Amino acid sequence: MEETISLKELLQTLKKRMSLIVIITLLAVTVSGVISFFLLTPIYQASTQLLVNQSKNEQSMYNYNEVQTNLQLINTYNVIIKSPAILDLVNEELGLDMTAVELNGKITVQSEQNSQVVNISVQDPDANQAAKIANKTAEVFTREIANIMKVDNVSILAKATVVDQQSPIKPKPLLNIAIGLVVGLMAGVGLAFLLEYFDTTIKDEQDIEKTLGLPLLGVIARIDDSHIQNRGSSRNERKARVRGESVGS
């Protein structure tokens, strides 16, 4: 029985504070939409791929040990790609007005497990700039790795390209609005219950029983002032009528 009463009280609280919940939810959705569409800068991404593999002639055979060596080298290559030795050259050859640290923050290097393919992804507000940085980074690394590690087992598998009307990778307005809707709804419901918890005013006889812990013996009915005035007017009219009849007789 207590669970039913508690559930009823919860529903009553939500119903009573529904306007507050709706206002907070709409406010959160509006703020997230405005920020996503008008304040956040669109970021585009371009990616290029490198293949870590020894060049072979037609007579060469598959060498398992060599593949394993290439896989172990990939982790080292991922670090070298984002090192100042490579990024300083990229910055210089592209004429970028940024430091190696700033350029490093735009570049992400990753490879799938047990794969000899390395992905170089670049994020930038300019899609063309992102593609240029990705391609130049792959080009410089492929050229310089032979001097750094005395190996020649890296080649460019695919270059970064820019398509017409390319969509930004972030922000995602619809996702942000959905998140704002959920957050606003949770905040509105939480605030509604918080206000109800701190509201200690007594509104009806049930609140009296709950506060005092005593059974309710009776209730004094509320009488409207208009009803009292109407009864007073009727009483005066009857008195006047009786007085008039007495004078007439």
> SSE order in H/E notation?
HHEHHHEEHEHHH
Instruction: Determine the number of helices (DSSP H or I, runs of at least 4 residues).
Output: 9
Stretches where pLDDT is under 50 for at least 5 consecutive residues are: 1-5
Mean pLDDT metric:
83
**Strand numbers in spatial order across the main sheet:** 2-3-1-4
Radius of gyration over C-alpha positions, nearest whole angstrom: 39 Å
Q: Which strand-content bin applies to the residues?
A: 5-15%
Q: How would you characterize the largest beta sheet?
A: 4 strands, antiparallel
Count of individual beta strands: 4
Our measurement of the CA-to-CA distance between the termini, rounded to an integer number of angstroms, reads 70 Å
Q: Helical percent range?
A: 55-70%
SS-derived structural category? alpha+beta
Choose one word for the global shape. elongated
Q: Would you write up a description of this structure?
A:
With 249 residues, the protein is of the alpha+beta class. 62% of the residues lie in helices and 11% in strands. It is built from nine helices and four strands. It has helices spanning 2-16, 18-39, 64-81, 84-94, 100-106, 127-149, 173-198, 205-212, 225-248; strands spanning 44-52, 107-111, 117-124, 154-158. A four-stranded antiparallel beta sheet has the order 2-3-1-4. Helix 2 runs antiparallel to helix 7 (173-198), helix 4 (84-94) packs across helix 5 and helix 4 crosses helix 6. The chain is elongated and about 125 Å long. It starts with a helix and ends with a helix.
